[in-house]
Structures are given as C-alpha cells and as structure tokens.
Design a protein that fits this description.
Blueprint: H1 2-23, H2 43-49, H3 53-56, H4 67-72, H5 74-79, E1 87-91, E2 97-99, E3 103-105, E4 108-112
Antiparallel strand pairs: 1-4, 2-3
C-alpha cells in the first residue's frame, strides 16, 4: 500500500515535470541520448530550431551544426559531457549552429549528463 502511494506520487511528479518542460516557449529543452540522438523535444525547441518533434526526435543532434563543424567532428565532441555526471557549457563563438530557415545562429547552451535510475533504485 505504501509503495503504491509512493509510485503514484512519483508518477504525478514526473507528469507535472513533463508538462512544465513541454510548456516552456522561450528555451529549447530537449534530451540527447549517449549516441547524440534527440529523444525529447519541447515547444521552445520547435519555435527556436524550426523543427516539429516528429521531424527531429530520432535524428542526430549533429543536424544543428554547420556542415563544416560536422566534417571536422566538432559537432559530436562539443556536446559530450565530461564524465558520467559531468557538464559542459559553451557559448556561441567558434561553433555556430543552424536552425531551419535561418542559417547560422549563436546561442548559449548547457549540456549535462543525466543518470537514469530504475524504479527499484528510487525506493
């Protein structure tokens, strides 16, 4: 009974967080798996990057980089966090990125590794 209440509270918390992230319009918030594949996409990412979720989820994050950056390998190296729980922050500068219909864009971005936990480890 107690475990059921805990699981329900966790489910509600996760649902509220999902709704919060999905509703943010001024920031692109999305998850990238360890292979650089986009796995989630919010309305802010759609507005800023120009791709609908169904167009970009499942695609490589390298799509946001210029052809020159992709050819040099800097697109894959720039987003990989340091260590299992590391983070990196880069601001515009040498590696411009692209958005559909607007060419090169400059922006501040933060990448952080997120460790997945099974439901058993939450108890």
């Amino acid at each position: 009974m107690a475990n059921e209440r805990i699981e329900e509270a966790l489910r509600l918390t996760e649902e509220r967080f999902r709704l919060l992230v999905e509703s943010v319009r001024d920031y692109a918030i999305y998850l990238i798996d360890p292979n650089g594949i986009v796995v989630t996409w919010n309305i802010g990412a759609e507005r800023i990057k120009g791709y609908k979720a169904e167009e970009i989820v499942g695609q490589s994050f390298a799509k946001f980089y210029t052809p020159e950056d992709r050819a040099s390998g800097s697109s894959s190296a720039s987003w990989r966090p340091r260590g299992a729980r590391g983070a990196t922050r880069r601001t515009g500068g040498a590696s411009a990125r692209t958005a559909r219909g607007s060419g090169r864009t400059w922006s501040s971005r933060r990448f952080a590794a997120a460790a997945e936990r099974s439901s058993a480890s939450r108890r």
